[in-house]
Amino acid sequence: MRKDVRILLVGEPKVGKTSLIMSLVSEEFPDEVPLRAEEITIPADVTPERVPTHIVDYSEAEQSDEQLYQEISKANVICIVYSVNNKKSIEKVTSHWIPLINDRTDKDSRVPLILVGNKSDLVEHSSMETILPIMNQYQDIETCVECSAKNLKNISELFYYAQKAVLHPTGPLYCPEEKELKPSCIKALTRIFKVSDLDNDGILNDNELNFFQRTCFNTPLAPQALEDVKNVVRRNMLDGVKDNGLTLKGFLFLHTLFIQRGRHETTWTVLRRFGYDDDLELTQEYLFPIVKIPPDCTTELNHNAYLFLQSVFDKHDKDRDCALSPEEVRDLFKVFPYMPWGPDVNNTVCTNEQGWITYQGYLSQWTLTTYLDVQRSLEYLGYLGYSIIYEQESQAAAITVTRNKRIDLQKKQTQRSVFRCNVLGARNCGKSGFLQAFLGKNLQRQRRIREDHKSLYAISTTYVYGQEKYLLLHEVMPDLDSLTDVDLACDVVCLVYDVNDPRSFEFCAKAFKQYFIDSKTPCVVIAAKSDLHEIRQHSSLSPHDFCRKHKLHPPQPFTCNTSEAPNKDVFTRLTTMAMYPHIRLRCMCACNKCAYCLCQNLLKLELLRNVKAQLHRAVQNRHMAQADLKNSTFWLRASVGATVFAVLGFAMYRALLKQR
After folding, report:
1. CA-to-CA distance for 557 and 96, rounded, in angstroms?
2. DSSP string spanning 503-556?
3. Paired sense of beta strands 77-83 and 245-246, if any
4. Which among 27, 287, 309, 489 would be 20 to 30 A from 527, CA to CA?
5. What is the per-residue pLDDT across 231-254, written as a single tens digit (0 to 9) for each?
6. pLDDT-based confidence at 148, cuts 50/70/90?
7. Across the chain, which distance is largest between two alpha carbons, in Å?
């Protein structure tokens, strides 16, 4: 909405332009009227719309045509004043003033006009019979007001309507010739309806109507008022009310009725609450609220944002199969001006056997967008109405900015939930297969992916010590000399080579020496296509010797040529290394013989899980807790048991470590 309003009064000499302004200010008819009144400003606190209003007078005797043209270009609304007892001044409205104003304004941004019939105290009849054909002829005319500066009749109303014509214009909303809403208005109101339809059943029930009313007007409707609204729609439309709820047609009809009855400020209040400007476009301030992101920090969605996105998913997953079919995806994005997800998304996140995005894949894609392009994520949340439904100031409330990575390294702990792994390797070494394997696709499923549907990203969840984390894999283009700091910024690096290609590892060795040899970023070497025969690499050191020399883990064999989904253990270990870069894991194998693997298996023992579950149930059971709290031997038994368990576990770990 505009921050101020500028009203210009024009018309023939002696029609009472200056008298109208002076009567408004002094609230009485002036004894002496100057040729032209000085520009006045009415403070916001005394105007109905709480907006500062500037009123400008025009005098043909004191101003040149050039000055008039300048004032026309600066005006937000123009009042053409005529005298109701002077036919010549009425004729001049169409023969001179309207053409003059139209010539000096752009066709795409015409200024609203208000016809003002002054000196109504001098006649007993109305001029509306003469004025109505003029109003029907010119769309820019908002309304006509008959008034009297002498007896103060309709003076306040005149300037209120002028202010209203600027702040709540009819032009963008309604076509008077067709007597219906304009397409852009229908499009905006349809989005508002869909956002407000919280259960996506195509009907606004009483709860949804009350939520909508409270959101836009800060007050709910009384039950009888709700019924009255629906009865008005029922009397005028057959399908405006269904199952005692308001349909989209009924919703649009109500706004048409508001405008036809001169209450278009109601429709504008709704539109502006949902982020629209005077051109019925979502404002930049609404779509892109400011989020400050310091260097070396990342952006993630917070808990409330995930809850909101979960509700959006549930709203559109009509068949309750925990996946979004193509039709359900299109329905979800109907509130967007364009389709934000392309076919590559299906190869970026997890999908089901039909290729439909699963619930986990849906959340992963939102996580990816927020991490890579937070402004795009804010825009998408704006289209879905996050700030409105969750009653937040803006979508920025959905974003968490993580702390500087250097602080995480210093404190040796992190609160981040998303970790980035850059995947580097020579062409055709198996990088794309490695990414798709993370999404559970074996080689057979990968062969069905079209070339133009491939993605350089893959994101999904892994579990590190019981915590759910997102791992984002990024396939880096194999042009080492053109890589920038932005391309290389990540939490862990994968260097992939093809065991069946003798020249493949040479790229990994060169990339490590050029970018990562002095870096604190953990690196892992992946021996891809391990199901094939391993060929000696044409490099100065073999992959195993290279890793031993640079204190890296031995190359990790990996293949996606499996009958089932590929093994994902390596991805869990990558996430662990990204979370704890200061800790050097003693192995990354699955041998079940070394100390690391045995300790990991110890944590996964069924006995340990059973003990943990029993303790959890005991804490939750109020009666048992109260009884045990009174029994001091309970704490003694618990303490002794915990101590024995810790000592045995530590002793076993030390023994295994010494043996190794």
Report:
1. 86
2. THHHHHHHHIIIIITT-SS-EEEEEE-TTSPP---SSSS-HHHHHHHTTPPPPE
3. unpaired
4. 489
5. 999 999 989 999 999 999 999 999
6. very high
7. 114
